[in-house]
């Protein structure tokens, strides 16, 4: 009973210790140890947009922007961070119609007006687009409705009223209608034909193309309009006044020389846009600076005009202009083209000799072949643009309109990203380049760690590969594969691209530095080199391989490695001038190859796309390929990518339905009996990662791997935390003393526990008698996904399927842990901890208790005295007369005498009790 109680106490102590450890267990944060799809530009983030932008309006805060779209049912978006992100607003436009025009008040970012140019309705919101009020179809005082709306504008507040003006035409000609929002009984009024004003605009004006209010409207009450007269073929800028005269042009004080005629050769006018200097004041002709852009549908194209009051400067002629915007503080002008994606800019538009330049060839908004209708604006001091048509987008310029990058609302084919064809990831994983193509274009995207931007759009869909310089991520080559076309940028595509041509058709490209790159030729076994960033290419040199080049990589200065298409590889240590051809691995196989260096004694690693094959290592100087994996890379799987990080080697494989990542942590010492870890894609999101010519990228530091799926056009990453981290041991603490049970002479159970490594689920626990683990006592496989893993081993407790483990008294044990190959990938071993088992306590000699002789109990014999009975003679007298019978009381009987044998029994019982007590006392074992 006592032994059993000791065992229960020992187990109870262990359970109490384990319970206390579990209470303070803290999960370890790390990756998922699986291929996860990365967040790419999409419609959910409003980076990709299925419809084309038709108009844009920028609020007075410079960050609030509204955009409308030419789509059935109407669509209205709002941004509060200068176009980086957008939210959908409920468009007030009726189903079946489009939201075509938008304007925002110059003094209130929450007051926005949208116009449906098809059914001619106008809607206003004063709460940032949360709700709208329909103002109906503009009519004059006689009930004549407009027949077209070409533009809309909102004034600054005047006497608690904002004026909403539209430019168009009605039955009598040009129309300038306005709505006095804020009036007691607000309504539409006509400022053009004299119905509601004292005097109308210039006679013969057929249509009003654009309308704008003076920036100082509360002071000067000025409104202006660009109009077209089809009879005289003239375009004019006309001035109206909301003052008491309510008149136009020469009838307005200080405007005797108005209207100003811009062009007299216009066969047919299409549109116009007006931008006004923020200092404009009607009463001061020195401040009356206005810019007008026009577009024609017939005859000569439109142009860009600068008006210093009535003086006209033609800044751009023969070009249809869709919109204009002026930054008064910086004195800079933007103009968006109508028929293409150009943005024109001037840094001195008010000077006597203004300059006008176009945006970069490859740095204009959208696509040079399909994007049109550019709307420009200033978001504070930042130049922005919204473009229509195929590949139109919301774009931002960091250099006042010279170069634009598309950051959101990018109109792509079918509103989808398209085919993802290549990726490049920086060494630290902080930046990324992505190449995509849809039915219309090829696009290069860049990611800076916070947001995506499209930095290059090439008209037409074609496969391209992106190759940055390892030491300067801004140096970037974009190569059209199976061609000699190379796009080069030295600023990551942010501001400039240069089109260059190689002398050879390129299969793959390796970049060594900002100036040096190597091109592996397509359909040949040669490599060409450039040392001036692709401007001039040296003659291609033969690698010596019998097959074609498949992939190429740079390992540092002058070190180049090529994998062939016929099971071969070759390397150069002098910048491609001379090549060393290596033995063939497998005929007809494309080779993925990498190395840590190319000196004698360094290793080259290779994997091939032949199914069920191995991984190979070649030592330079020995020149023999050795198998370095136990088994193969999986039945039916072929290698598409290879990467080396320190001594950790990765191989990415795929079949027609799935992919797997293989890895060994000791590539330089592996042999054909080395077990590699492998991880399949999850069945629910299996991806075919088979991109070429190189299908695996790696960013060091966190050891994150990247690969593309050509089947679902997605980018996947694998955060291999178990390659760089190890399980953190918790207890027994290093140097811990394990106690002995003094009653049993056996050590107590030991509770081994450690923090979970990443998402590992299986571990190897190794226990040995030496720190080098040459004398292994126990290798235990542990299946546990808890945040704190606990395993109890000892003489009393052990995992199911295992066995008891007797700890030897006075012995020191060493233990370590790693994630196992099923974990799902091996990790390196943890630190080594030790514990010592307590020396057994000195055993006392056994206590021998001699049994005392049984007491002799003598019971004396008691002799009863003889009993003599004397019988007297009985003499009977002669009977006499019968006397009276008197019966006397019976005498009291004497007390009985206790027999002697009873006393003997009592005495014997007392002696026995005393003997038992003595025996118990003398035989009691000391505690």
Summarize the structure.
With 927 residues, this protein is mainly β.
List keywords for this structure.
single chain; 927 residues; mainly beta; Methylamine Dehydrogenase, Chain H; Immunoglobulin-like; 7-stranded antiparallel beta sheet; 3 helices; 67 strands; disordered N terminus
Output the strand order for the largest sheet.
36-37-38-39-40-41-42
CATH third-level topology of the domain at 468-584: Methylamine Dehydrogenase, Chain H
Shape: elongated
Strand content: 35-45%
Instruction: Quickly give the CATH architecture of the domain at 468-584.
Output: 7 Propeller
Question: How would you describe this structure to a colleague?
Answer:
The chain is 5% helix and 42% strand. The protein has 927 residues and is mainly β. A hairpin with a 4-residue loop joins β34 (441-447) and β35.
Secondary-structure map:
Layout (H helix, E strand, L loop, with lengths): L1 H22 L12 E2 L10 E2 L3 E6 L6 E5 L6 E4 L7 E3 L11 E5 L2 E9 L4 E5 L7 E4 L9 E9 L7 E9 L2 E9 L6 E3 L16 E7 L3 H4 L1 E8 L4 E8 L18 E4 L2 E11 L12 E11 L3 E6 L2 E7 L3 E7 L4 E6 L5 E4 L10 E2 L12 E9 L2 E8 L4 E4 L6 E5 L1 E2 L7 E7 L6 E6 L3 E7 L4 E8 L4 E6 L2 E9 L2 E7 L8 E14 L5 E5 L4 E5 L10 E2 L6 E8 L2 E6 L4 E4 L7 E2 L9 E5 L7 E6 L6 E5 L5 E3 L10 E8 L2 E7 L4 E6 L12 E4 L16 E3 L4 E6 L4 E6 L8 E4 L4 E3 L1 E2 L4 E2 L2 E6 L6 E7 L7 E8 L4 E6 L18 E8 L13 E5 L62 H24 L4
Parallel strand pairs: 2-31, 59-67
Antiparallel strand pairs: 1-57, 3-4, 4-5, 5-6, 7-8, 8-9, 9-10, 11-12, 12-13, 13-14, 15-16, 16-17, 17-18, 19-20, 20-21, 21-22, 23-24, 24-25, 25-26, 27-28, 28-29, 29-30, 32-33, 33-34, 34-35, 36-37, 37-38, 38-39, 39-40, 40-41, 41-42, 43-44, 44-45, 45-46, 47-48, 48-49, 49-50, 51-52, 52-53, 53-54, ...
């Amino acid at each position: 009973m006592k032994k059993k109680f000791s065992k229960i106490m020992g187990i109870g102590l262990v359970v109490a210790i384990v319970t206390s450890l579990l209470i303070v267990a803290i999960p370890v944060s790390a990756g998922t140890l699986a291929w996860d799809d990365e967040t790419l530009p999409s419609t959910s983030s409003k980076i990709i947009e299925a419809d084309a932008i038709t108009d844009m309006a920028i609020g007075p805060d410079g960050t609030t922007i509204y955009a409308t779209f030419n789509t059935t049912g109407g669509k209205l978006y709002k941004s509060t961070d200068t176009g980086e992100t957008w939210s959908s607003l409920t468009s007030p436009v009726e189903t079946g119609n489009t939201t075509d025009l938008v304007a925002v008040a110059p003094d209130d970012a929450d007051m926005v007006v949208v116009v449906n140019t098809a059914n001619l309705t106008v809607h206003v919101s004063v709460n940032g687009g949360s709700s709208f009020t329909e103002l109906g179809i503009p009519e004059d005082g006689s009930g004549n409705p407009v027949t077209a709306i070409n533009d809309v504008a909102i004034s600054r507040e005047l006497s608690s009223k904002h004026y909403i003006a539209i430019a168009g035409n009605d039955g009598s000609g040009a129309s300038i209608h306005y709505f006095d929002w804020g009036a007691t009984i607000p309504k539409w009024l006509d400022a053009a034909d004299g119905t509601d004003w004292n005097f109308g605009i210039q006679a013969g004006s057929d249509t009003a193309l654009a309308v704008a209010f003076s920036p100082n409207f509360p002071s000067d009450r000025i409104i202006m309009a660009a109009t077209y007269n089809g009879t005289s073929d003239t375009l004019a800028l006309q001035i109206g006044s909301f003052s008491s005269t309510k008149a136009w042009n020469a009838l307005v004080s200080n405007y005797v020389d108005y209207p100003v005629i811009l062009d007299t050769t216009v066969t047919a006018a299409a549109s116009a846009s007006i931008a006004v200097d923020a200092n404009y004041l009607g009463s001061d002709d020195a401040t009356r600076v206005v810019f007008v852009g026009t577009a024609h549908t017939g005859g000569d194209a439109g142009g860009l005009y600068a008006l210093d009051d009535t003086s006209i400067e033609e800044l751009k002629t023969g070009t249809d202009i869709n919109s204009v915007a002026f930054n008064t503080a910086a004195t800079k002008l933007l103009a968006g083209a109508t028929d293409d994606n150009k943005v024109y800019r001037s840094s001195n538009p008010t000077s006597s000799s203004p300059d006008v330049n176009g945006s970069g060839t490859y740095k204009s908004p959208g696509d040079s072949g399909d994007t049109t209708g550019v709307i420009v604006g200033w978001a504070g001091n930042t130049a922005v643009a919204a473009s229509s048509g195929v590949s139109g987008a919301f774009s931002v310029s960091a250099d006042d309109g010279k170069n634009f990058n598309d950051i959101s609302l990018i109109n792509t084919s079918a509103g989808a990203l398209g085919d993802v064809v290549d990726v490049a990831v920086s060494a630290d994983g902080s930046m990324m380049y992505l190449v995509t193509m849809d039915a219309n274009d090829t696009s290069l995207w860049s990611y800076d760690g916070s947001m995506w931007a499209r930095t290059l759009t090439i008209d037409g869909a074609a496969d391209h590969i992106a190759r940055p310089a390892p030491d300067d991520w801004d140096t970037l080559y974009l190569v059209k594969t199976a061609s000699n076309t190379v796009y080069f940028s030295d600023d990551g595509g942010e501001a400039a691209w240069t089109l260059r041509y190689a002398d050879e058709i390129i299969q793959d490209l390796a970049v060594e530095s900002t100036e040096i790159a190597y091109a592996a030729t397509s359909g040949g076994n040669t490599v060409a080199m450039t040392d001036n960033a692709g401007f001039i290419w040296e003659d291609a040199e033969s690698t010596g391989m019998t097959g074609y080049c498949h992939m190429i990589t740079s390992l540092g200065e002058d070190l180049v490695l090529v994998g062939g298409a016929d099971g071969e590889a070759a390397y150069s240590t002098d910048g491609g001038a001379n090549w060393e051809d290596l033995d063939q691995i497998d005929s007809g196989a494309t080779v993925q190859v990498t190395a840590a260096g190319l000196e004698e004694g360094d290793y080259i690693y290779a994997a091939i796309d032949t199914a069920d094959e191995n991984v190979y290592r070649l030592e330079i100087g020995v020149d023999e390929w050795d198998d370095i994996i136990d088994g193969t890379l999986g039945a039916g799987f072929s290698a598409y990518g290879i990467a080396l990080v320190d001594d950790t080697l990765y191989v990415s494989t795929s079949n027609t339905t799935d992919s797997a990542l293989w890895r060994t942590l000791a590539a330089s010492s592996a042999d054909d009996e080395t077990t590699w870890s492998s991880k399949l894609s999850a069945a629910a999101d299996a991806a075919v990662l088979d991109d070429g010519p190189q299908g695996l990228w790696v960013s060091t530091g966190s050891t994150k791997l990247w690969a593309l799926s050509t089947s679902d056009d997605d980018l996947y990453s694998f955060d291999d935390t178990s390659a760089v981290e190890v399980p953190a041991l918790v207890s027994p603490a290093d140097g811990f003393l394990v106690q002995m049970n003094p009653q049993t002479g056996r050590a107590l159970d030991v509770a081994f526990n450690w923090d979970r490594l990443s998402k590992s689920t299986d571990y190897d626990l190794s226990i040995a008698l030496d720190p080098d683990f040459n004398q292994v006592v126990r290798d235990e496989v542990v299946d546990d996904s808890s945040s704190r893993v606990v395993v109890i081993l000892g003489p009393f407790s052990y995992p199911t399927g295992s066995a008891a483990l007797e700890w030897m008294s006075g012995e020191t044990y060493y233990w370590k842990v790693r994630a196992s190959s099923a974990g799902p990938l091996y990790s390196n071993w943890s630190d080594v901890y030790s514990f010592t088992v307590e020396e057994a306590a000195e055993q006392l000699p056994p206590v021998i208790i001699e049994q005392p002789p049984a007491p002799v109990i003598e019971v004396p014999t008691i002799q009863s005295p003889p009993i003599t009975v004397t019988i007297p003679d009985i003499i009977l007298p002669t009977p006499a007369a019968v006397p009276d019978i008197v019966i006397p009381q019976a005498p009291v009987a004497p007390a009985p005498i206790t027999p002697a044998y009873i006393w003997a029994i009592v005495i014997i019982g007392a002696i026995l009790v005393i003997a038992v007590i003595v025996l118990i006392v003398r035989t009691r074992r000391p505690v």
